[in-house]
Amino acid sequence: MSYYTAVSGEILIEPPLRGATLKASPFYDPWIGGEAQRCIRLDAGEEPADGAAPETATELVARRVISADVERLDAFDMEDELQELLDAFPGHTFTGRLQCMGDNHWSDMWGVVVRDGRAEKVTPTVVWPGDTET
């Protein structure tokens, strides 16, 4: 039996990643046989090349990092994978977070944030009215 996680949110990239450097990343196309091999991916698309008319030259650009799967995935390696991506692109600033909810729903919430160039797993504390924090 597998454990799955629903992931939302995004990590923004400034300046955006472009061209061949982006395409060479294992986070550009993390699928093999229709299955995601990574927890996260670069959300890339074609945009007009700098200085070119929109209908002429385009280049591949990634402005954010998102979940590799649109529904559910095994996210055990998300923190390490995000750190690998951050380390692969020095000179870029990454900001934001990915929110995660496991199979156990509200009792299994966590996320991965970027703080000072480091990926960090965070776990919220849920306190229901009338309860105390444990």
Structure description:
A hairpin with a 2-residue loop joins strand 2 (31-32) and strand 3. The protein is mainly beta and 134 residues long. The protein has one domain (5-50, 57-122). Helix content is 12%, strand content 46%. Strands 1, 4, 5, 6, 7, 8 and 9 form a 7-stranded antiparallel sheet that branches.
What are the SSEs and their pairings?
Layout: E1 5-18, H1 19-23, E2 31-32, E3 35-36, E4 40-48, E5 58-67, E6 72-73, H2 78-88, E7 93-102, E8 109-115, E9 118-122
Antiparallel strand pairs: 1-5, 1-6, 1-7, 2-3, 4-5, 7-8, 8-9
Mean pLDDT equals 85
N-to-C terminal Cα separation, in Å? 29 Å
**Secondary-structure element pattern, one letter each:** EHEEEEEHEEE
Helix percentage = 10-25%
Q: Round the Cα radius of gyration to an integer and report it.
A: 17 Å
Q: Main sheet, how many strands, which sense, barrel?
A: 7 strands, antiparallel
Count of distinct strands: 9
The rough form would be described as elongated
Strand percent estimate: over 45%
Give unreliable regions as ranges: none
* Tally of separate domains: 1
Number of helices: 2
Q: What structural class do the secondary elements suggest?
A: mainly beta
What descriptive keywords fit this protein?
134 residues; mainly beta; two-stranded antiparallel ribbon; 2 helices; 12% helix; elongated
Give a quick summary of the entry.
The protein has 134 residues and is mainly beta.
